From TrEMBL:
Organism encoding this protein: Amycolatopsis bullii
Name of the featured protein: Histidine triad nucleotide-binding protein
Domain of life, source organism: Bacteria
Domain HIT: 9-122
Chain ranges for the short sequence motif Histidine triad motif as given in the UniProt record: 102-106
Length: 122
């Protein structure tokens, strides 16, 4: 769907066409649980307006990027992980693991997460 005018999976979720476990929503953002959770808490924060990735969002609408980050904090608060710590991750394009080309932040926490990235090579 990259570069396509077709609705993304996330637009279909936001529109209610595909069910999701919604954690929080407001005028500009929508947050729901990832069905392939990588931590006890794994919530996706999606801007309602589609941008391909976080770089495009930052260039096109810095205020909306700020809204996404504020919603990530709100999710951490609602999930009870604000004080213990949480991670916010944006995967940008294929090599970073982005599979849905509608920018989204992963909010992860609820347990020790350790380091991340490519595993160490011996």
């Amino acid at each position: 769907m990259s570069g396509s005018e077709a609705e993304t999976l996330f637009e279909r979720i936001i529109g209610g066409e595909i069910p999701a476990d919604v954690v929080y929503q407001d005028e500009t953002t929508f947050a729901f649980r990832d069905i392939r959770a990588q931590a006890r808490v794994h919530v996706l924060v999606v801007p309602r307006k589609r941008y391909r990735n976080v770089a495009e969002l930052a260039a096109g609408d810095p205020q909306l990027l700020s809204d996404v980050i504020a919603t990530a904090r709100k999710v951490a608060e609602l999930e009870g992980i604000l004080e213990s710590g949480y991670r916010v991750v944006f995967n940008t394009d294929e090599d970073a693991g982005q599979t849905v080309f509608h920018v989204h932040a992963h909010v992860l926490g609820g347990e020790p997460l350790g380091l991340f990235g490519a595993p160490e090579q011996d």
